[in-house]
Amino acid sequence: MTFIGTIFLIAGLCSAVTHIIGGVLTDRLGRRRVLLGVTAVSIFMYGGLAALIGLSAPIWAIVVVYITARSVLTTIRPAISAMVADLAPPERLTETYGLLRVGGNVGFAAGPALGGYLMTFIPYAWLFGVTTLTWALSFVLIFFLLRESYRVSSEQVTFRSLISVAGDRRFLMFTGLSALVFLTMAQFGSTLSVFTVDRLGFSTAQYGLLLTINGLLVATFQYPVARSVNRLERSTGLILGSILYALGYLSLGWVGSFGWGVAVMVIITAGEIVFAPLTPTVVAELSPEDKRGRYMGFLGLGQTLGMSFGPLVGGVLLDTFETKPPFIWGIIASVAFVAALGFYRWGATRQINRNSI
Hints:
Blueprint: H1 2-29, H2 31-54, H3 59-74, H4 77-87, H5 93-118, H6 124-145, H7 162-166, H8 169-185, H9 191-199, H10 204-229, H11 234-251, H12 258-275, H13 278-286, H14 292-320, H15 325-356
């Protein structure tokens, strides 16, 4: 697990860099051009993965292409987030990002079920061929249906201009605290899968069902919850989401049955539903319009670092405290609790700045 976590970390560090690149390109070239370019490259990258797996290529070759594909793909995220901020009314940003997550999680819920079904009658490598076709369809839809939402400025956007973003201390504090929550969130895919299947004895079908439950809950409740959370002070919503994450992962230390595992997944999903749409909302509110892509890229940097160090941290904890689940999940939960305290301080600072204005 430590070795696998290291691979995820390397991929994440590369993706962190491309997040920043994607943010700069989003401001420099426009949202639509970045979406089209990344989608086109992804068609070839995932087609390459399908070919390598089909030919039983050396594992190092598959890892290199995987890391490259993931790095290229992350450049698209600042463009998507910036385009939503361009198009959505300011007072409805949170629920708009919530609606975007509904679409993503419908796919997330259907993906494991579709993948498992396809594997019953097609070779594993062909699953990546299906992914390649999906990217091709995305390219066609973007090309014909999506218009540019941002008038590209004549200002020369360079990497030096990132210094102005790095100088925004309130934004950097927010990004750092968010990275802690993302590190906790990252346990969802890697550490949780090994823990539930190898340590608790859940079947792979039961673990897949947990993922499907998460996706269905997000698809059902994300939009109405986002509308309610939009009425809260931003820091209050971020604190609430962080605490729910912490309580959910802390509870994993005492899970003894699949039913209790489902209950824990509900708590973790509640944290996700509250926290996830608020992060791009805060960035959209803090960023000037002509620097929105760069700000979103910095948020992506924090998210990617957190999501990348997460599997490594979880893998080390699994290897170190093999027979002591409360230690594993207690340490992971403490990271989210620290983030909640940080958001409380961040919110207080933000309120002082408002009053001074």
